[in-house]
Known about the structure:
mainly alpha, about 325 residues
Amino acid sequence: xxxxxxxxxxxxxxxxxxxxxxxxxxxxxxxxxxxxxxxxxxxxxxxxxxxxxxxxxxxxxxxxxxxxxxxxxxxxxxxxxxxxxxxxxxxxxxxxxxxxxxxxxxxxxxxxxxxxxxxxxxxxxxxxxxxxxxxxxxxxxxxxxxxxxxxxxxxxxxxxxxxxxxxxxxxxxxxxxxxxxxxxxxxxxxxxxxxxxxxxxxxxxxxxxxxxxxxxxxxxxxxxxxxxxxxxxxxxxxxxxxxxxxxxxxxxxxxxxxxxxxxxxxxxxxxxxxxxxxxxxxxxxxxxxxxxxxxxxxxxxxxxxxxxxxxxxxxxxxxxxx
Length: 322
């Protein structure tokens, strides 16, 4: 990088990257930094947008990696337990190389997730032009970002807005805290961009529905569970239940099935959110089923063209490659 960033630019970049250590709660800092520094510093804007991508896409990849490790470990334990029982050999799943590998993988992924933003923050504090592996160079190309002398053009504004809107969709996988991204974007950029306002509002509504479903299913399950515990306790003998105990047991089974079905459906909502983010990044004006049309009717707008994704030509006439 030939142009050294100012102290203010470095501070925003450092804060944006370090906010990843809050595991979802700090996702508002990159959006605030980008809103504050756009059209002031393309260095700070790029670093903030990169940090936003790391906390949304990176968190998703990190969580999926953990799920893969967990499923793989359970599969190995089941197979080894089966063979041990078949051969009448002792087997302890909490001991041996299997558990060591699981712990190394689990803590290794966590250490990697924490280490990268720390390295990014240190690099930005020194004025370096940091890029995350894989994502950094792709994002720079997507935004038309170059940090060289004589390059006075800003980032591609249309792609900035698509990126911020897309990351808001991706954060649906972060329980509760994922709402911070679309709500912050709505507050800070809603008046400036009708497109960002619409995408942020429909994302906020959609994520709220997903969170309510999860909380509602959890509430239903615990109501049935506590009802069962209370009535069996009053019956005095769980093995010889009264009619009240049998009724509460039936209620517990019904409530558990309802909660189980909802819990199974929630990953489908997450997948739809990821698909929405991908569509937005590709330049589509994505509408969630039912939610999108409902939000579009509630947003006052003379024409629906303002809700369409902005053209790349609006921010820069020619995209640059790195």
